[in-house]
Amino acid sequence: MKTSLFIIIVLVSGASAGLVHGMVNFVIVEPYLDQAIGLENQNLFESGEEEDTPQFWVEYEGYRIWQKSGQILAGAILGTSVGALFGIVFALSRNSLPGSNNIKKAIILAAIMWLTLYFIPFLKYPANPPTVGDGETVVLRAILYLSFIAISGFGAFGFYKLSKKLKNNQTLVSVTGYAVFISVVFFIMPENPDEITAPMDLVNEFRMVSVVGVSSFWGSVGIILGILWNRMESRKETTKYYS
């Protein structure tokens, strides 16, 4: 496949999946953000940090409208960057992925990356609404979360490379090795430093819809990239046939 076609496929699939993610978040995640921020505003009023005035609500509504309007665009931008990584990994591992066609291969890879780069780190450091967390620990929490993602991702890649050197039980060795490795990391990594002060019903529901939102991205990018890759290969074969 030509480099230009590869770049187009990767960018289109990533941006499209990002749009899906942004729209899903707008529909199912934003209502929980509104609830969480409403609780945060109430706490600000009770503590005296802010006053419950018309001016406050005008500024607040303006900010939230701006924030919501950028939700889908932000999803497309983020999706493009993550989709680029997905496309590169797919191109490098496509021949060794199980599946009878590119769509199945891409979906399988998306599921693997969803598991190692999102869901396992999520289990250790689950998403919390804005009402949870001390502002002074934001940097620490970000470092812990990104570190876990990096460890999980590189760990999965390392065991994949190791399995390629083995003749028998490649899948069993890589899966078992990664499972043991990430379990040890899971218990070694520090816990979230902040206590949860928001209502647990809100926190748990927010986490569930967050999983749905991110999963919509990984599912979409796998399907879209696989479809586009199949079409480009079919077009290439047709061109060869008639040339």
Layout of helices and strands, plus pairs?
Layout lengths: L2 H45 L6 H16 L1 H23 L8 H23 L13 H27 L5 H19 L11 H43 L1
Give the overall pLDDT as a whole number: 87
Which radius of gyration do the C-alpha atoms yield? Answer: 22 Å
Distance between the termini: 17 Å
- The best one-word shape is flat
Largest sheet: none
Poorly predicted regions are none
Run of helices and strands: HHHHHHH
Helix content: over 70%
Total number of β-strand segments? 0
Number of H- or I-type helical stretches: 7
Q: Return the structural class.
A: mainly alpha
Strand content: under 5%
Protein model, in words:
The chain is mostly helical. It has a domain at 3-102 and 200-242. The chain contains seven helices and no strands. The chain has helices spanning 3-47, 54-69, 71-93, 102-124, 138-164, 170-188, 200-242. α1 (3-47) runs antiparallel to α7 and α5 (138-164) runs antiparallel to α6. The relative contact order is 0.16.
Keywords, please?
mainly alpha, 81% helix, flat
Précis, in short:
This protein has 243 residues and is mostly helical. It has helices at 3-47, 54-69, 71-93, 102-124, 138-164, 170-188, 200-242. It is flat.
